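Sequence only, no structure available. Ideas?
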Amino acid sequence: MQSLNVLIVSSDTSKYIGQFLQSKYLNKLYITSNEEISGTVRIKFNTFKELAQKCRALQIDIILAEEEKWVLEGIANVMKQNFVNCFAATTDWIELGLSHNYARKMLTRYDISIPPVITLPLEFPVLVKGDGFLKKANSMQEIISIKEKIYNTSGEIAKNVFLEKYLHGEKYKVISIFDGKHLLTFPHKNIKQSLLTEYSYKLEKMLLEEKANFIGFINSEIVEENGILYNTGFSYEFSMPDFDICNTTIPKDILYICLSAIYQKLNEIKLAD
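Reply:
I predicted one. Tokens follow.
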């Protein structure tokens, strides 16, 4: 495989900077944070379009948008328009993380388990959810108070507020990587792999049937209760996969995964059973 010129878009020093610098697939590492870090080259930019032009001039092979705010602001869309590989979800897909109602409808369509909606709470706590809003309530009075605050802040958000059962199981964050054709969900040491494989299959089906066309990552926030994995949300801040629990024959190197994604070969990566 080729060596990569890589740009990490982050306002602070990447907590994974050491792993990138040690990669045998790295040619040159660029960063956007203000720190002076040995082995890296700093890039300044004012707009995504300006950044795309600099990436093309510097022959940067791939951008990793490490912070969620860059993904939400549409960095992947601008880079795609300028023929620069950006390892992040496009704005077509960020609504999964921004709107609980939208995510519930989408996940239900593909038979991905989600916590049930509650009409009349008989036990507490419960979750009060709306678009971009989540709050735990421990009593009916708290529910009323929360709803009043939402209504006073935004009548539009208040229209779509609902109550959701609070699940008491273990909570996890799982990272999946999508290459436009295949989804690779990394194992979690505390989740039975058969459950995660089933979840990943359904998530991949959703992305494919909804014609997702980005190359990048998506985090699933999961609660396991009574042997069922429930999706409770999505997020877009990059987190390094735990390679230690993957098959030892797979290079423990995120840039190897990035290259595989660029060439749509994630299906060739076999993880531990």
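The chain has a mean pLDDT of 92.
Hope that gets you unstuck.
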